[in-house]
Amino acid sequence: MEFSTWLIYLGVISAVIFTPGPSAILCMSHGLKFGKAKSLATAVGGAIAASILMTISIVGLGALLAASEMAFLMVKLIGASYLIYLGVSAWKSSYLSSDSHSDGLGLNKVNLSDEFIYSLFRKGVLVGISNPKDILFFTALLPSFINSGASQVAQYLALTGTWFIVDVTGMFIYASLGCKIGSWFEKASNLKFFERTTGSFFILMGGALIASTTEE
């Protein structure tokens, strides 16, 4: 891969990754609740999910999935259901925030006994891989950056490695942003507002995904 091509690829994926979406909102939420260090697990999970989707697209299964209406429909419905589940969970959490944070304790001191690092990582993976549009995006994007006359393995490593680094960096920035504004959420009503807004966003995204399947 030529350096000029790599620079273009870097610019394109940076614009895509840094555009706010479900993974960004999740990382910001985890940064707020658990701190940016622990939220790195969420960011890594999302980046691994994207790498999996990219690999699927590169080997040609992405096009096969896109061609299979039933398989594509199932992926979309599963992804939409999980987004709605996250939204409902955030709303439920908002009802508990008033009592659990009424003592003025810092948000990053939340007890993690029920929220292990693996759980944060798993949520990052599930949110990152639950958007079937990424499969189509990678299928449409990658061919324009691949040189058929050069080593496919080297190009694959360059493409996925660059995406992984930029993705983790971008999501860690969102987690850090959530951590930075954490002091504003010491007030229970502000935390409740954030959690309900986040929950509504996930429910809206899930609903829109379901609506798109019924229109096709």
Features:
single chain; 216 residues; mainly alpha; 9 helices; 79% helix; 0% strand
Number of strands: 0
Domain count? 1
Structural class: mainly alpha
Task: Give the ordered list of helices and strands.
Answer: HHHHHHHHH
Average residue pLDDT: 74
What Rg, in angstroms, do the CA atoms define? Answer: 19 Å
**3D shape:** globular
Task: Name the helicity range.
Answer: over 70%
- Given the structure, what is the number of helices? 9
Largest sheet: none
The end-to-end span amounts to 37 Å
Summarize the topology.
Blueprint: H1 3-18, H2 22-34, H3 36-58, H4 61-67, H5 69-100, H6 117-129, H7 133-141, H8 152-180, H9 188-215
Helix pairs in contact: 1-8, 2-3, 2-6, 2-8, 2-9, 3-6, 3-7, 3-8, 4-7, 5-9
Condensed summary:
This protein has 216 residues and is mostly helical. 79% of the residues lie in helices and 0% in strands.
Architecture overview:
The protein is mainly α and 216 residues long. The protein has nine helices and no strands. The chain is globular, with a radius of gyration of 19 Å.
